[in-house]
Amino acid sequence: MREWFAHPLTIIGAGYGAYxxxxxxxxxxxxxxxxxxxxxxxxxxxxxxxxxxxxxDELRAWSKxxxxxxxxxxTWPAAHGGRGLSPSYQAIYAEESALxxxxxxxxxxGLGMVGPAIVHYGTDAQKAEHLPRILxxxxxxxxxxxxxxxxxxxxxVRTRARRVEGGYVVDGEKVWSSYAHLADHCLxxxxxxxxxxxxxxxxxxxxxxxAPGVEVRPLRQLSGDTDxxxxxxxxxxxxxxxxxxxxxxxxxxxxxxxxxxxxxxxITLTARLSVQLDRLVKTAKACGxxxxxxxxxxxxxxxxxxxxxTGYRALAAMERTGEPGPESSILKLRWSQANQRVSALALRLxxxxxxxxxxxxxxxxxxxxxxxxxxxxxxxxxxxxILRGIVAERVLGLPKSR
Length: 402
Prior knowledge:
Oligomer: single chain
Strand content: 5-15%
Radius of gyration: 22 Å
Number of strands: 10
CATH class of the domain at 2-136: Mainly Alpha
CATH superfamily of the domain at 2-136: Acyl-CoA dehydrogenase/oxidase, N-terminal domain
Largest sheet: 4 strands, mixed
Helix content: 40-55%
């Protein structure tokens, strides 16, 4: 099934006259071939069971290898250590690395979100300090946006940054911060003017996670994973030179960051879903599948193809306008539903064996873990409720609910 992902799009023309060509250009084909050969050399052949677990040290080593091979910062400007390629090349990388079951760059948040924001808004000193280290994986960033009472509604951020001589003192709480337990720095959004309108008076900071007053508490999920974290900030001093962009303009910085997050996000999710569906088919063959199960798998295949081409449409919009469109919200919403359906069906196929654990379980309990982990899919990266609101307002033109 993985051969479905063989051709990203090329955008031909400009403006509304542009169209998608769903095969590689000559340069893209050469890039894809080189990437596939490099991944084959670097990674062991994929197995039908659980993917390899990577330690923090192994992830950092992998990130250095990516950087050395020129696969980190593909779309970053060449002046800042990138290759200045179009998002189509990043899409090729996202597809092929997911299909090869390669791990993420250790600094995936810094590479895909924080780095581009620093390129756009950072001072020369901030660029010199952070960008090379983000590319190499030496510095890991997390993101401090969501809060207990302001999850996907960033305009309701309550973390306060009080002005003092030489900088700010920050108090507040962030939640659902991926990889904060490993991070060296955090892109932090805080309110610096409590009297300003909701979208104003916000400022972004490049917070040192080892500063006094910063406490990280891992949030354990049903699956036992602790990728998400709570960040508690108590009297944390942040100097002026750590402000990213202008004070009070944090909303703009945040939107730039989120736009880059959504860029090729759907392509990555869809390629990973294809790997999961491939495993589901192997599980069905091992356990036996009646006609009803075969029909369900076929429906998942159709959903996957719809997601795949929606991802290409989103990429086409970004190539044309420079900004991702509402298609990214549709992708995230439908992917989370499909991924949860895959793991639920796999457990049904296992029957009584779904109750087994550890070495006694099918594939060492892979599907049990995936089923529990998938519950977070409808929360992470934007809750399903928020995404439905975006689709209703921006795609269907329905009136705002609030």
